[in-house]
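$ run holo --ligand "magnesium ion" --emit tokens
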Amino acid sequence: MNHILLRISNLSTEFKTEKGVFPAVSGVDLTINKGEILCIVGESGSGKTVASLSLMQLLPASGKIASGEIWFEGRDLLKVKKKEMSQIRGKAISMIFQDPMMALDPVYTCGSQLIEALRIHNKISRSGAFDKALELLKHVGIAHPERVMHAYPHELSGGMCQRIMIAMALSCSPRLLIADEPTTALDVTVQAQILDLLKKLRDEMHMSIMLITHDLGVVAEMADRVAVMYAGKVMEEGDVRSIFRNPQHPYTQGLIRSIPHLDQANEKLYSISGAVPSINSMPEGCRFSPRCPDAAEICSRQEPQMFPTGGGCRARCWKSDPAWKEGEAG
Ligand SMILES: Nc1ncnc2c1ncn2[C@@H]1O[C@H](COP(=O)(O)OP(=O)(O)OP(=O)(O)O)[C@@H](O)[C@H]1O
Ligand SMILES: [Mg+2]
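-- output --
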């Protein structure tokens, strides 16, 4: 049996803008089991980052969690005190971001930043932290850790900086690592190395990873389970095999169809027409209906709930409603 590490239910997050208050994430349910990699995938603007920042309670000032529960190790994180949350952030949940160069401070050496991170979270001396930093750098596959300790971020490659960010994120031995597009800023070979590293660390440290990406290739490579997000909602979720072999939601089907294949070099690439709606102009009914090739009359009128689609998977689509299927059969 799987053991749940994190359970998010009915999470809604809204932003105050000049035009009013609008939800960027609406009624999201997600679970992550211990030792599992959950990929959150969806086009730009679908709410992936807002969902993860809500979980970490690191939203910008204009953002607010309007409702929901975030259960982590027996506590609802939305009910714990600020101080306690910052301890959880430092010790149990860590996060790495898209652009490692931006996340590191250019005026300090990598070593002093890593030592600082270690000393915030662990009661250790400077020299103890130095040794631990070297160990962590080796752990994340850095061949000459002493040299890297004395280097400034701009002296290192993007891939190297991301390894250092990962080392920092691991400095507190988190149970959950949230990685928001951790390889998007890196070139393809380095991207593969970083993803391999994350997998290796998951296996060795038995941590869970919430990996955010818009790249289904990354999902296929990394995920145990997938949640497909669109316009602030989870549209489909399930284990990675079922989702790729037998996607039920037209949005997931479209995303999968848009993956380029080597053998279609001369064919035109498929893409879903249109774009993700902005938060102040969400369509009525199913949010994907204006772009959906299979949309029926009900779809633009009434929003579907999540329907079980077999094997523990679920899809937010009227065509997955058992009543719909009966209607089609009859
Ligand atoms: N500070 C903000 N103020 C107003 N709206 C915001 C703010 N941050 C995000 N949004 C809106 O919330 C929605 C979700 O944004 P989010 O950044 O979570 O998307 P994403 O799925 O992470 O996209 P990407 O793949 O580009 O990173 C978008 O419509 C975005 O414009
Ligand atoms: Mg994002």
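-- notes --
The longest helix spans residues 188-205.
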